[in-house]
Amino acid sequence: MSFAWAKPYEPKNNFMKWLDERLPVPRLVYGAVGGGYPVPRNLNYFWNFGVLAGLALLIQIITGIVLGMHYYSYAGGAFESVERIMRDVNAGWVLRYVHQNGASFFFAIVYIHIFRGLYYGSYKAPREMVWMLGIVIYLLMMATAFMGYVLPWGQMSYWGAQVITGFFSAIPIVGEPLRVFLLGGYAPDQAALTRFFSLHYLLPFIISAVVILKIWALHIPGSSNPTGVDVKDEKDTLPFHPFYTAKDGFGIGVALILFSIFVFFLPYSLGHPDNYVEANPLVTPAHIVPEWYFWPFYAILRAFTVDFILPAKLWGVLAMFASILLLFFLTWLDRSPVRSTSYRPAYKIFFWVLVLDVMVLGYAGQAHITPFTLALSQVAAAYYFAHFLIILPLVSKFEKPLPLPTSISHSVLHGEKEESAPFGLTRTGPAAAPAAAE
Amino acid sequence: MATVEQPSQPTMPGEPQADAAHGAGVRRRDFINIAAVSFAGVGAAVAVAPLLIQMSPDASVRALSSTEVDVSKIQPGQGIKTVWRKQPVFIRNLTPQDIQAAASVEVGGLRDPQTLADRTKPGKQNWLVTLGVCTHLGCVPLGIGEGENKGEYGGYFCPCHGSHYDTAGRIRKGPAPTNLVVPEYEFASDTVVRIG
Amino acid sequence: MVRIIGFLIGLGFVGVLLISLIVNAVDAIQNPPVHTAEEEFHLEPRSAGFSWQKPWGQFDEAQLQRGFQVYKEVCAACHSLKFVSFYELEGLGYNEAEIKAIANQWAIEVPSVNPDTGENSTRKALLSDRFPSPYANETAARAANNNALPPDLSLIVEARDDGADYIYSLLTGYRNAATYRNEAGEPVPQENRPGTGLHFNPYFANLNIAMPPPIVSNGQVTYADGTNATVDQMAKDVSAFLRWTSEPNLERRHAAGWAVMIFLLVGTVLAYLAYRNIWANAKREVSIRGPLEPAFQQRMQDQKDERGIAG
């Protein structure tokens, strides 16, 4: 697809040949994740997270379909049906723990994936569409996760639904009618639960469709790489299979170990005790917090406390949506031609401040509101917006980047050891290696 | 980078010593790759297990193992429909004529040869307990209720495809392959039947 | 254009946040937050050192049976266990006949319909039944308990921070508000002392709990296995039992977890070896051979030094 030297698919036997001529799915797979996709040879472990995210989506869809066989989206019985899954259904507890913690697993992977993209400039030309489709997936994930969290119909489910649909009521004039429309009532109840279940079942398949678009878009320019230098010739790349399938296999092993620790030994650590209390529209839990992956946004929402021209509530909701939507415009906000932050000494500092900043926002998002945590969230939220909207454009204008390596396989200038193309993979063969190294 | 040399040229096929070393390396490598892929395969297969066994009857269904029924109010000639494992069960108090009719049949000529005694408890031959599920395709036969069609043999009649059962619940005519199933049951007391 | 609009939006958000920050800071200085008595007197749960709290931990079956006895004789009169079924008691080590007997003798009967009259009635519990609730509904429960609602205990351990430790601390944490002193030696302020129908307990969120002390004296329950029924022991046992009710599959989870971990560790090591194998050629470093090789140059230099040749 992407490079002239990408190996075309050659059917190994007559059946595959027959199939390929009629329905070229083997060819598609071979070109997408097989030997026919040349990938830069210098990818580090951060490039494992795309495949890991796909794995997490798969785990969620499979366990979700199976849980859907036992769950009933009935306000009077949803909580009980989850308990039936936990107690009566054969292996129901493991399926539910996997699905429940799988959401966190998915978000953790996606966050690392996003920050990988930020650090290595994956949002820059020619991969803007890949990045923007990724943000679309992220938004869909957030919607899916939120609606999924409502389904057990515990206290946090209920009050989460109440609070999050409350965002819409911040919109002037149409806000409150819109909220009532979305809930199908004045408070979350049967109508809301049923539609959330329906959409929670639907959205992962839409995510899958966007994932396919994203992979498609990715294969036009090919994968980025840690130097940010474009692939110049064949010795800069390796076929995806077997090289990156092997590396992803190892990455999947490590990720599943970490995931299993949570599923089997800490299944409650990421949840909230109040969600083991059945929903009660008359009693609000003492301390409403969303799941950890929403904490930074919750902190931004709560950071706006002053009615300045607009009501504070509207500021909070606008800022929260803006904090994600601005990611769509990153390509145009960052004008630096250098992709990898490794070669951007000034921006590198700001990048790590951003990482820290998002963690501070996360802390502030789950903390009890005190003057200190409130101030913390305000400073951190201010930096978040300043980083993307003010600092990034300015830094990229004035910064003097370090010299880039001339090619991927020649990136020795920055301490990496020189690597040669493997035998038999270069067109010229090993005999040409001395010349190539020069 | 002035002089860079290839460290180890791929060995020529003609060199026996190097070739042997090369071959051993390939075998060891292949083994590890195959082991890793097989391990992943086994893992995937094991992971499928919970996805499948969740469909089998859950613990609450399995716990519905027994039902107790008070039969003291059933007069001879009457029957009741009760439920065991969410399936209908017919309990019928046979009249002496019913028993007579059932006993007079030549067992050897039946599709599913069983005597009435095979299908009831000793000393309680008038109590016929069967699942109310036609052995053809699972409809509920008529005949247990007052005034329902009892079929040509005075037992049960399945309206779906016309199976006729006699007073011992044996298939006599129609497509059903076997007699109505007698579930495991016992008399907990003279008047209480415990099914399951 | 995008950058200019973005810059303005960014300035807007940052500006409003800084205004909020200043307003809040001024407010915090003018009205410094006061520590409430709840914060001053509330205690974190004490650890009872339960057997299952380690990753390889399992339940102590005898303790669960004792805890069940405490639940049956002390708690069940007010607290339901509505998500737990009788057949689940298998997990406590009872056999089917014993469970049937327990269900049959359970003091509270299961709501049912009289088969003759169709009127509401009750029947003896069966193996497949959930534990029947002591009250028909929330209103009845509140009416019988001075408008306080005894929570269902099926999931109480998961529904509280620190779970079983909290239950244990709460059950043994009743104190006399009049004589109680916190760590700083302060008495409980008058407004935080229990009103009528309330009981002082520093482990409870707002210090005053409606539940009267349920476990009051040693020997309140006579254990079948002869364990000395101290208040502490009973509180521990019933906390363990409630941990079990909230997750009967805990032991299975731990066992399955170890099997999965060992499998994954072996698989990951294999995957790593396969990865290194496949990459052995691709990742091979180019080494420099010949006169410019650093080791070679060093050797030449050494030889020169030896012979006393300068430079």
UniProtKB/TrEMBL annotation, chain B:
Domain Rieske residue range list: 99-194
GO molecular function, one term: metal ion binding
Keywords assigned: 2Fe-2S, Cell membrane, Disulfide bond, Electron transport, Iron, Iron-sulfur, Membrane, Metal-binding, Oxidoreductase, Translocase, Transmembrane, Transmembrane helix, Transport
Cellular component terms per the entry's GO annotation: plasma membrane
Required cofactor names: [2Fe-2S] cluster
Subcellular localization(s) per the UniProt record: Cell membrane
SUPFAM superfamilies xref list: ISP domain
Annotated spans, Disordered: 1-24
Cofactor note: Binds 1 [2Fe-2S] cluster per subunit.
Reactions it catalyzes: a quinol + 2 Fe(III)-[cytochrome c](out) = a quinone + 2 Fe(II)-[cytochrome c](out) + 2 H(+)(out)
Enzyme class: translocase
Ranges that cross the membrane: 31-53
Family: Belongs to the Rieske iron-sulfur protein family.
Additional notes on this entry: The Rieske protein is a high potential 2Fe-2S protein.
Record's protein name: Ubiquinol-cytochrome c reductase iron-sulfur subunit
Organism, scientific name: uncultured Sphingomonas sp
Native organism taxonomy: Bacteria, Pseudomonadati, Pseudomonadota, Alphaproteobacteria, Sphingomonadales
From TrEMBL, chain C:
Residue ranges occupied by any Cytochrome c domain in the UniProt entry: 62-171
Gene Ontology CC: membrane
Location (main, coarse): membrane
Location in or out of the cell: Membrane
Transmembrane intervals: 255-275
Cofactor note: Binds 1 heme c group covalently per subunit.
Cofactor entry: heme c
Gene3D superfamilies: Cytochrome c-like domain, Cytochrome c1, transmembrane anchor, C-terminal
Any Pfam family hit: Cytochrom_C1
Keyword terms of this UniProt record: Heme, Iron, Membrane, Metal-binding, Transmembrane, Transmembrane helix
Sample GO molecular function, one term: heme binding
Record InterPro entries: Cyt_c-like_dom, Cyt_c-like_dom_sf, Cyt_c1
Taxonomy, superkingdom: Bacteria
Chain positions recorded as heme c binding sites: C75, C78, H79, M211
PANTHER family named in the record: CYTOCHROME C1, CYTOCHROME C1, HEME PROTEIN, MITOCHONDRIAL
Protein's recorded name: Cytochrome c1
